[in-house]
Structures are given as structure tokens and as C-alpha cells.
């Protein structure tokens, strides 16, 4: 329950910031990263596994960010590094997949309705938050 509350608060704060500024606040990310590690210690869970999940996801997405010239931002890569602390590697990859799926469907709808073009930047973090909520409700 602690993980659920922490992640939902993180997605709300960072999602609103991403919508407003198109940037992810690194201070909030650091705060939630430290909070996630603290929760693992408090609950007696495996910290090494949590850090490995976070670091692996972050490295992969960071490399993709460089290759794609930040079509996936470095902040998004770091976000999934932080979610990896809270989630196991499989849930973190599922979260990434569902987030891409949702933003892809949204983008397609916006293109069809001619409300956006291929160069329109869409904040990604709100879709991560929605995907996490859908995962918790067992909808996806």
C-alpha cells in the first residue's frame, strides 16, 4: 500500500509538472528515489534487486534517448530508473510497454483528428501514471 501511495503521488506531482513545463523535476525524482529506497529498507525488502531493476531500466532507456535524439527524454529514462526501485523488473517493463501503448493510441487519435502533427511534443509522464493506475486496477 505504501508503494501504491508513493508512486501515485509521484505521478501526480511530476505529471502535472510535465504537462505544464514539458520537463521532469529532478529534485522530485531524487526525493521519490530516496523514498523508494527507504521504503524497501523499512519493509525489509531486497534493496539490491530494486536498485538493479532501476539501474538496468534507466541505462537502456538512456541509451535509447541518445540514439533517438531524445524522442524519449533523459528525464523519462530517469523516471523509469526510479519506478524500477519500487517495482520489479517485469512490472517496470510492463509499465513502460503500457505507457508507450497509451501515448501511441493518444497520438494516433490526435493525428487523425488533426489536432497534432508528427512533430508535436506530448508529455509522456501522465501516460505512465495512467498506465500504473490501470495496472493496479487490473485493467491491463
From TrEMBL:
GO biological process terms on file: methylation
Q: What is any one of the record's Gene Ontology cellular component terms?
A: membrane
| InterPro entries, sorted | Prepilin_IV_endopep_pep
The entry's keywords: Membrane, Methyltransferase, Transferase, Transmembrane, Transmembrane helix
Which GO MF terms does the UniProt record name? aspartic-type endopeptidase activity; methyltransferase activity
Provide the Prepilin type IV endopeptidase peptidase domain boundaries. Answer: 6-108
Q: Does the keyword Transmembrane helix apply?
A: yes
Q: Which residues cross the membrane?
A: 25-43, 50-68, 95-113
Q: What is this protein called?
A: Leader peptidase (Prepilin peptidase) / N-methyltransferase/leader peptidase (Prepilin peptidase) / N-methyltransferase
Q: Which organism is it from?
A: Acetitomaculum ruminis DSM 5522
State the taxonomy lineage.
Bacteria, Bacillati, Bacillota, Clostridia, Lachnospirales
Amino acid at each position: 500500500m505504501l508503494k501504491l501511495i508513493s508512486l501515485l503521488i509521484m505521478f501526480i506531482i511530476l505529471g502535472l509538472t510535465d504537462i505544464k513545463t514539458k520537463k521532469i523535476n529532478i529534485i522530485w525524482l531524487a526525493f521519490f528515489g530516496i523514498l523508494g529506497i527507504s521504503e524497501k529498507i523499512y519493509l525489509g525488502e531486497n534493496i539490491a534487486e530494486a536498485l538493479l531493476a532501476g539501474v538496468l531500466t534507466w541505462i537502456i532507456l538512456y541509451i535509447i534517448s541518445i540514439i533517438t535524439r531524445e524522442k524519449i527524454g533523459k528525464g523519462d529514462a530517469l523516471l523509469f530508473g526510479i519506478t524500477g526501485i519500487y517495482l520489479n523488473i517485469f512490472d517496470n517493463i510492463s509499465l513502460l510497454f503500457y505507457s508507450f501503448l497509451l501515448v501511441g493510441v493518444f497520438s494516433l487519435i490526435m493525428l487523425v483528428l488533426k489536432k497534432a502533427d508528427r512533430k508535436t511534443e506530448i508529455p509522456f509522464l501522465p501516460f505512465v501514471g495512467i498506465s500504473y493506475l490501470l495496472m493496479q486496477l487490473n485493467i491491463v
